[in-house]
Amino acid sequence: MSKTARMVMKIIGASLAFAAFVCLLIGGWHDLSVGCCGVKKRLSQKFGSEYDDYADEELYD
């Protein structure tokens, strides 16, 4: 194989690997967003204020 053909094959392989990574990222985007929201919810429950349980809106009616 000539050097040009080898370089073309490397470029094609790199572009296919990049396309596979992009497809994997797009396919798993929903799972990533659900995971981030779950972590935020757990952290807010763990480190939330002690006064978050009160319904302040009902006190001022």
Q: Explain this structure to me?
A:
- This protein has one domain.
- The radius of gyration is 25 Å and the shape is rod-shaped.
- 0% of the residues are buried.
- The termini are far apart.
- The mean pLDDT is 80.
- Helix content is 77%, strand content 0%.
- The protein is mainly α and 61 residues long.
Q: How is the secondary structure organized here?
A:
Blueprint: H1 3-27, H2 29-46, H3 56-59
Beta-strand percentage range: under 5%
Q: Order of helices and strands, N to C?
A: HHH
Low-confidence stretches: none
Oligomer: single chain
Rounded mean pLDDT is: 80
Q: How many individual domains? A: 1
Shape summary: rod-shaped
- Which structural category do the helix and sheet elements fall into? mainly alpha
Q: Mind telling me the C-alpha Rg?
A: 25 Å
Helical stretch count?
3
Head-to-tail CA distance between termini? 82 Å
**Strand runs, count:** 0
What share of residues is helical? Answer: over 70%
Biggest sheet architecture: none
